[in-house]
Amino acid sequence: MQKLRYPCGTCQQTTKEAQREVEARANAELQQYLAPYIERTLSRTIDYSTLSDDLVLILIALERTINPRLLTALLCAAIAGNAPYYAGDFITKLYKAQVILDDPSKAKSGTYF
């Protein structure tokens, strides 16, 4: 009797179907979990007049850095080279202050699991 290194075609198909079902259930659970968060995020209004000065300065700096790239669709090496190495700290500060929010419905498939 010879042992197969790979499962037969029928077994492979059965395994793939079972895997798809598990992924579909996991995705459905994730969507159910994220739905209230997405709804809260999309219905949230940010009152920029109530932001502290440090948050406003970070937003202005981000807008001035990102906007030219969006308009020209080019990544300017000079801008990227002058960006501080700890830029993530600024983004984290804005995120924790709920000035910027994530939208899971716009995320690439597989981002949240």
Total number of beta strands: 0
Strand content: under 5%
How many domains? The number is 2
Overall 3D form: elongated
Mean pLDDT: 79
Uncertain segments are none
Order of helices and strands: HHHH
**How does the major sheet shape up?**
none
| Fraction in helix | 55-70%
Structure description:
The protein has helices at 9-43, 53-72, 77-82, 87-96. The radius of gyration is 23 Å and the shape is elongated. It has 113 residues and is mainly alpha-helical. The model has no long low-confidence stretch (mean pLDDT 79). The longest helix has 35 residues, at 9-43. The chain has two domains: 1-45; 47-97, no CATH class. It contains four helices and no strands. The two termini are 42 Å apart.
